[in-house]
Design goal:
single chain, about 230 residues, alpha+beta, two-stranded antiparallel sheet
Length: about 230
């Protein structure tokens, strides 16, 4: 059976998750995290992919990024995966695959879901009961996005920029978003969409996506029970 085509559009953000094979650890120490981030930094520039948020968990990775051109995202993830696996296997004296098949992803474009994805990603360590606040976790983008430190590697998504007119205010507004938990319906929608490839987008973009439907793919755009836009 042929692989399902991923829905990727230049200029539209993508939330993706990649898990370790059999949920095994893909990071065993600080150097592993640093090497992964160094490669992500280099390859995101090479492939013109703006990284907005990330969280490196022990056995999986979350990224929110926007590819600048067609083919940028698969090129980035291919090279990143290969580079990191080669490093990890050498360092830890192992061989074979590290990742659990292909990464899972979904388009994220509507204001509600873009900002929810930022929070969903950076709250992962709290959901896993690893920390009491996302600012305590070293291997995520929260410290940068909340203004605790700077890093030009991260690019602000337009919906993030729209939070306030200047950086100081944006960071303050962003920090306030973490004073309340994400609605469960949003958490479930993001999880479902990412695992199944459903787009979390506005009606206008949904119409564009429908016009790009593969030949022979019948039916109008529909919505899942969780309220996630999908192609039928």
């Amino acid at each position: 059976m042929p692989r399902a085509l991923r829905l990727v559009l230049p200029g539209v953000a993508v939330h993706l998750i990649q898990r370790g094979n059999n949920r095994s650890a893909c990071f065993r120490g600080d150097e592993d995290y640093l090497v992964y981030l160094a490669n992500l930094r280099q390859l995101s520039a090479k492939y013109d992919c703006a990284v907005h948020a990330y969280c490196l968990m022990t056995n999986h990775v979350h990224l929110l990024l926007t590819p600048g051109e067609e083919g940028a995202l698969p090129g980035l993830m291919r090279d990143l995966g290969q580079r990191y696996v080669q490093y990890f296997n050498r360092r830890h004296g192992r061989s074979g695959t590290l990742w659990e098949g292909r990464y899972r992803s979904c388009l994220v474009e509507s204001r509600r879901y873009v900002l929810a994805c930022y929070r969903y990603i950076e709250l992962n360590p709290m959901r896993a009961a690893m920390v009491n606040h996302p600012s305590s976790y070293l291997w995520s983008s929260h410290a940068v996005n909340s203004g605790m430190r700077s890093d030009p590697f991260l690019a602000e998504h337009p919906e993030f920029v729209a939070l306030a007119s200047d950086a100081t205010l944006r960071h303050a507004v962003y920090r306030r978003l973490f004073q309340t938990s994400i609605e469960e319906v949003l958490v479930n929608a993001i999880r479902e969409a990412t695992n199944a490839g459903y787009p979390l987008v506005s009606d206008a973009l949904l119409a564009r996506i429908g016009s790009k439907r593969r030949p022979g793919k019948p039916g109008p755009a529909a919505m899942s029970p969780a309220g996630v836009y999908l192609l039928s």
